[in-house]
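Reader question, answered in our methods column.
A reader sent in the components of a multi-part assembly and asked whether the whole thing could be modeled at once rather than chain by chain. We filled in our standard form and ran it. Here is what they sent:
COMPLEX SIZE: two components
ENTRIES:
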Amino acid sequence: DQQVKQNSPSLSVQEGRISILNCDYTNSMFDYFLWYKKYPAEGPTFLISISSIKDKNEDGRFTVFLNKSAKHLSLHIVPSQPGDSAVYFCAASDNDYKLSFGAGTTVTVRA
Amino acid sequence: EAGVTQFPSHSVIEKGQTVTLRCDPISGHDNLYWYRRVMGKEIKFLLHFVKESKQDESGMPNNRFLAERTGGTYSTLKVQPAELEDSGVYFCASSGTRHTDTQYFGPGTRLTVL
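And here is the structure of the entire assembly that came back:
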């Protein structure tokens, strides 16, 4: 009953190019979506979020897009940098505080 | 300001033994959460405290898991007796009062049950 899915376990991108990470969800009650970034042996770190009343949110090199009708969101990183190499988790909540996470996508940025 | 801290960072125990994990949230954060990641899969919610009260424990796997937050400060998660499937990384997070407030995660405790 996994409600948040990240179907790509890994992504390799050249430094300077765009990284696009995808996430799908099944629960139509979700109204808040987040991306977390995780380095080895560390906890997840908040990256960017978006409310269901918006379809785009931008913060520097990071942009999150939300398509409610398709129950899909994506994270764009432009340009990708070596320090962006990490595991990225998509998460969602439905106004009850607990977060539902995807399984993560491992991003490797090649020099 | 200190972030969320967890102790120990690693724990290796035998099946049937007891382990207690500790989490110290960010000072002033009333909301405290426990999550678990097993075998590189998704991070799963276990439970949520508001101050010392359990707000939601729908993710607790079974009655071998007991979480407490006496005094509304630090929290402990006890597993007794531990089983092989309890192995994983246990994360603690804390946040402010609104459900959209960022949840800040600790570094996690890696539990290995042999």
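What stands out: DSSP finds no helices and eleven strands in chain A. The radius of gyration of chain A is 13 Å.
Send us your own complexes using the same form.
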